[in-house]
Amino acid sequence: MSYRKFGKNDVLINTLKANPESEFIIYDSNIFYNDRVAQVGQFQSASANPGNIYMTPSGHINLYEYNIDRLSGSNNLILPYLSKDSTRVSLHMTSSAFTVEELATEFAFGDRINGVYPQNTSIRRQFIATPSGSCDARSKATCGHNMYYWSLRPLLNHYGTLSEHYKVTSSFGNKDEQKINLIHIPSIFYGNRIKPGTVSLRWHVTGTLLAEITDSKQNGELIQNTAGASTGSNVSAVQGVVMYDEGFIILTGSENLFKNSKFGLEADEADQFPKWIYWGAGARDGVTTTNTSATYKNASFAMSFEAETTTETITMYARAHRGQVNYSNNPTFISSSQQLIQFTSSHVYEENQERLLKNIVSSSHIGYNEKFRRQVYISKVAVYDEEKNLIGIATLADPILKDEDQDYVFKLKMDL
Fold first, then answer.
1. Which of 89, 142, 377, 397 is 20 to 30 Å from 17 by CA-CA measure?
2. H helix or E strand, kind and range, residue 193
3. Measuring CA to CA, how many Å separate 320 from each of 6, 186, 377, 381, 404?
């Protein structure tokens, strides 16, 4: 094996921009993502829990895709772990994670502490009835602010340059005092940001479209369109805003969309007429059929948007020039029954320079040996850094036969 240095134009770095689409359907406390159905496997059958090879609830993504189609006891789950030492590092991956004090007292040095895979995520709805309240600066426990809203509050005024509807206090109301429907969208679904002009939220009743809001102006305002059984009084009204970079949707629309029947859309409230502040009920917010009325199942919700993602890719051209890359470390490259060492002593180690290479040139005639030509089979291309540390290996599906009078270029591409 010999090293070859990449030439001036052999390494190219490009940025790939994409706009993948995401669509979520929320019905009866279940989330469905991009119309994906449960895919069963060898260990995750239809009767298993959760019953799909990604081992996540419906509408969730398995982060890093650890533990695919596994079952404890059959092909055991992989898991993260660390050993207790003096660094006081602990695993905080679930709501039941132990505290620093428990780490210090319940484990001895050298004990192994296990975490849990897979990690998964999906969208989440949060109904905030009282965004802001009195707060004792000396005690976080007695603070009346909703901390999810309070962390986003400074950014709302920052977005106010796009629209007055973002601002905490404006002629459209005071968000500190309004009921807020906060939709959390994890970044794995939108990449760098949500693409402006692509957000759509839809409300269905027994399968019929009741109303839709979109950011048609691309300035974050979610404007209601004329649709279905809408009352018409709130058509073209702004019902909320989108925080494109942070992945949040804030809905504040409190006008009735439908006056013919009420729905059980909040666990702590009586049945309500449809309003945008109740959109998405059941999306990991604790609202279920057991704590609402039977009419809850009449409502379903849909959300779609496009993401903006950038992926840095590196393309490398590994060149095998004519007359080069014509030696192999494979033992069969040398003809058998030859002496390896020419001379050795306490000061000298010399290999036999007269060893013959095996002739592998194929002949089209039986019993005839073609004239010897130096040939090798290239099966792998290894990539090293400047300090000759191996950073990657590209394996060819089929080895390539290279004659010494041939030139080859191998194109290697990798996401950074």
1. 397
2. strand 193-194
3. 11, 45, 12, 10, 10
What Å distances lie between residue 105 and 98, 110, 111, 151, 330, CA to CA? 11, 13, 12, 34, 56
Closest CA to 32 of 222, 282, 243, 209: 282
Q: Long-range contacts of range 229-233, CB-CB < 8 Å, 24 or more positions apart?
A: 229/205, 229/258, 229/260, 230/257, 230/258, 231/255, 231/256, 231/257, 231/258, 231/259
CB 336 within 8 A of CB 321: no
CB atoms within 10 A of CB 263: 22
In b/e form, how buried is each residue of 191-223, taking b as 16+ CB within 10 angstroms? beebbbebbbbbbbbeeeebbbbbbeeebbbbb
* Torsion angle defined by CA atoms of residues 100, 105, 111 and 113, in that order, rounded to the nearest 10 degrees: -30
**Identity of residue 51:** G
**pLDDT tens, residue by residue, 92-111:** 655 556 666 776 777 788 88
**3 state SS of 105:** helix
pLDDT, tens digit (0-9, with 9 covering 90-100), for 51-101: 788 889 889 999 888 888 887 666 788 888 888 887 766 666 555 566 667
Boundaries of every domain in the chain? 124-311, 321-415
